[in-house]
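Exercise: predict the structure of this protein bound to flavin mononucleotide.
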Amino acid sequence: MTENFTDSVFNLFTRHVSVRSFDSQKRLPKDTVNILMKAAQRASTSSNFQSWSAIIVENKSNKKQLAQYCANQKFIDEAPLFIIFCADASRHKWLTKERNFKFNSNYLDLLLVSAIDSALACQNALIMAESMGLGCCMVGSIRNKAKEVSEFLKLPKMSFATVGLAVGYPSFKNKVKPRLPKEVIINYEQYSTKNKEIFIKEYDSLMSETDIYKNRRVHVPGITPQFEEDVNHYGWIEHTARRMAKGNEMRSQLARFLEKQGFSLK
Ligand SMILES: Cc1cc2nc3c(=O)[nH]c(=O)nc-3n(C[C@H](O)[C@H](O)[C@H](O)COP(=O)(O)O)c2cc1C
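Solution:
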């Protein structure tokens, strides 16, 4: 473990893969939760607001229930530790009132600030865990049933679960997933779309040659062919386009829930 702790951060980043298969028998090193939370709390945070909270879930039946809320993703159940990161402005609302001020910060930016804070904390925890030889997978489907999750975790108003983090010893690891060529993502001085299509297509070919989409083709009802007939070229472009076309009905309800939780989307 000491060796992994001294591994360079850059090496950790280049080796990162999301892990969705855990050895549920292998216990986590002592103090894992404390170490991950220490790392998470050291993340940069907008205005030092620290507008996030974490819920540590290790209890089997709680994990099982949460896995069900998260699109029944089995690995959540399997992982010995599931941490739910929440955007949380409840403390800020409370302390403003406590000091007899009117709370004048409830606009969309507060939601973004607290959601970004929670994501940064989650990423710090993930890197920390990977440096300890553990594997992780972030879980955005914690937002699929935002209301149920919120009630289950007893989240106060002005908070909501943004992302989960399943943590454990990997029992299987995927190959490192290629990323888009830097030319697509990185711009200098100003945004440019020059040659982006060429580089996106290059990535598309690269991804179609991997087995990443094997048995994972997205079906858009009434539009894409049935599974057996779905044999044409399928790469990152088609996969992403189909996901965009399909959307996620549950997530499309999130705005209404957030307003009920007290956040303003204006
Ligand atoms: C905010 C966020 C939410 C995610 N949610 C899920 C999820 O619910 N289920 C899952 O299997 N992977 C989830 N992932 C993992 C991504 O699918 C994964 O990071 C991406 O495909 C790149 O693969 P890699 O992490 O192995 O490089 C999520 C990642 C992020 C950043």
